[in-house]
Design goal:
There is one protein chain. The protein is an alpha+beta fold. 28% of the residues lie in helices and 29% in strands. The chain has helices at 2-25, 33-38, 98-106, 131-147, 162-173, 189-194, 201-214, 220-229, 236-245, 252-258, 275-284, 300-308, 314-327, 409-415; strands at residues 51-60, 66-74, 81-87, 110-114, 150-160, 177-183, 261-267, 289-294, 340-343, 350-353, 362-369, 377-380, 390-395, 421-423, 433-436, 444-448, 451-458, 463-472, 477-488, 497-502, 506-510, 515-521, 536-541, 548-554. Strands 11, 12, 13, 14, 15, 16, 17, 18, 19, 20, 21, 22, 23 and 24 form a 14-stranded mixed β-sheet that branches. A 10-stranded mixed β-sheet has the order 1-2-4-3-5-6-7-8-9-10, with helices on both faces. Strand 11 and strand 12 (377-380) form a beta hairpin. Helix 4 (131-147) packs across helix 5 (162-173). The N and C termini lie far apart (49 Å).
């Protein structure tokens, strides 16, 4: 079993590494992936009469470490220039943004890219977007201003994933930064790693192992990950304190006070940093802001269009627009009056909103009605309302056809318009349950975060509930719309508990004649299950225990 798990983890890391490395490979006329992996200095840097490149830059940190960097400088500057600083993704280095740096340099930007401590050729221990990384961020700005003709009132920073979080937290601490482009970022790191007490198994393993393989990883990172996986009550408070310091959502007031213009991009299927906490951050910003929400998984909405020409390259085009607007004061090409831009899954349609809580978005409320001998579970617009208790029992010994499927890969394929399918009628009635709505009279345009409230009675001291929202046709074939999870690492066996949780942010159109289906089971490959043993769990109804599903939609 351990060997299988290790092979599975290595395959996942390979998938992620290929995607991220390809972002570097496209900088040259061929794809020097092997060169990049073996000797980064052998990368073929772009050449242009419009800029020069210095690939020997070293930034000295406050504690005397050397961070590797490169800089692109326009050749015909007549005045001080706007500047952009790019920060590497987890496990990558200062060569990650060569293509983007060349593009901006040809348009008059000075562009510095550096590798954070512990990654690439930079010295030190990986600080995981902690205080040392934030101090280094400001030192990179100092270096630019001290050594190049930079307009101090036109400095922006950005990055994918790790670099995006450092950019957001760094900008909160350094008011010199006027604009940020944070791609595949996070709001709360606590929610990202342990939201609803549910360890993100696949992505947690990817981050920990890739960090150990490619960087000088802080020993606390694998220790904290083990504490999360095991729900270690003695260590979790320490982990939470550590994660809060590294959460951009903790610094919203500072970002607002600084007036930092913030562009965000996020994939619906990013199960490393799910969209919900980032959307909470976004809604609380009072600064200039804009977000693109797109199909895909972590980092792929930024990489695939740029690399393979699959779909529109919306993210990077909007990054360039964002810097032009806020660093060059060029006219805006983005609709600032509706800053939430949602690409509808498996569609060419896009919707814009001022807020996900705006009056444009209504809520469809469904009540859960139990499965009986003669009927499946139902989603009804009226409460179940029985005065006596009723329950449906699930056996948690194995997974079911209800699933997010293969972590990373399946969510990537959604970006390529390949849905995650299931057959609702073929799923196990012993290990799962589903509730179906009436047929939709017209297209149901789901926009936002569906939410579930449900009463459960686990017959074990640890349990997990995974909820899936499907679009089902007349034959029982269903496409996964979104999902959510809640884990009880310390349950009262035999006690009834009310669980309330959101599913991941999404935009999806359910066609007329189809049904919305809520499916529930007790495990999914995305998450660490708390209990290796078989156990039973009842879903409760009646006697005041009304299960509810809330679906946000637009008419």
């Amino acid at each position: 079993m351990k060997i299988t798990t290790h092979i599975f983890t290595i395959l996942l890391i390979t998938q992620l590494s290929v995607l991220l490395v390809c972002n570097n490979a496209i900088a040259a006329s061929h794809l020097p992936i092997l060169d990049w992996l073996s000797k980064p200095q052998e990368i073929l840097l772009p050449r242009s009469e419009r800029f020069t490149i210095d690939d020997s830059i070293e930034i000295i940190t406050e504690d005397g470490l050397h961070l590797k960097a490169n800089i692109f400088v326009p050749t015909q500057l007549v005045e001080k220039a706007p500047a952009v600083i790019f920060i590497n993704s987890w496990a990558l280095n200062e060569y990650q943004y060569i293509k983007q740096a060349a593009y901006l340099a040809e348009r008059g930007y000075i562009v510095l890219s550096y590798a954070t401590r512990g990654f690439g050729g930079s010295e030190g221990v990986v600080d995981t977007a902690g205080p040392n990384d934030i101090a280094d961020y400001s030192r990179a700005i100092d270096f630019l201003i001290d050594n190049y003709p930079v307009n101090e009132n036109a400095i922006g920073t950005g990055g994918i994933s790790y670099g995006s979080g450092i950019s957001l937290i760094g900008a909160a601490h350094d008011s010199r930064v006027k604009a940020v482009a944070a791609l595949s970022s996070w709001g709360s790191l606590v929610d990202s790693l342990y939201g609803n007490q549910s360890p993100r198994l696949a992505w947690g393993e990817i981050l920990t192992l890739s960090g150990q393989l490619t960087g000088n990883l802080d020993a606390n990172v694998p220790r904290y990950w083990e504490a999360i996986k095991s729900h270690d009550e003695s260590t979790l408070p320490e982990v939470i304190d550590w994660a809060l310091v590294r959460s951009p959502s903790e610094y919203i007031d500072k970002l607002n006070a600084n007036g930092t213009a913030i562009y965000l991009a996020k994939s619906y299927g990013d199960n490393l940093f799910q969209p919900n906490s980032l959307m909470t951050l976004f809604e609380q910003l009072t600064t200039p802001k804009y977000i693109d929400l797109l199909p895909g998984t972590h980092g792929t909405a930024e990489i695939l269009p740029d690399l393979l020409g699959i779909g529109e390259n919306r993210v990077w085009e909007n990054v360039y627009h964002w810097f032009d607007i806020h660093l060059k004061q060029l006219p805006s090409q983005l609709p600032s009056e509706k800053p939430i831009n949602m690409k509808v899954k498996f569609s060419d349609n896009t919707d814009q909103f001022t807020s996900l809580s705006s009056s444009e978005i209504e809520t469809q409320q469904y009540f859960l009605h139990p499965r009986t001998w003669f009927d499946n579970g139902d989603l009804e617009v009226t409460p179940y309302g029985a005065e006596s208790s009723k329950d449906n029992t699930l056996n948690a010994w194995a997974g079911t056809l209800f699933t997010t499927s293969i972590p990373v890969l399946s969510q990537l394929l959604e970006q390529l318009d390949v849905p995650i399918y299931s057959n609702i009628y073929a799923a196990s009635d012993i290990r799962s349950i589903y509730y179906q709505s009436p047929k939709a009279a017209k297209t149901m345009k789901i926009r936002g975060n569906p939410a579930l409230s449900i009463y459960v009675q686990p017959h074990a001291t640890q349990a997990q509930v995974v909820a899936y929202l499907y679009d089902m046709n007349v034959f029982g074939v269903a496409k996964l719309i979104t999902h959510g999870v809640y884990t009880l690492p310390k349950a009262a066996a035999g006690g009834v508990t009310k669980l309330e949780f959101e599913m991941a942010t999404t935009a999806y159109d359910v066609p007329a004649g189809h049904r919305v289906v809520l499916a529930i089971d007790t495990q999914d490959p995305q998450y660490k299950k708390p209990n290796r043993h078989s156990y039973y769990m009842d879903i409760e109804y009646g006697n005041g225990r009304e299960g509810q599903l809330m679906i946000p939609y637009v008419r």
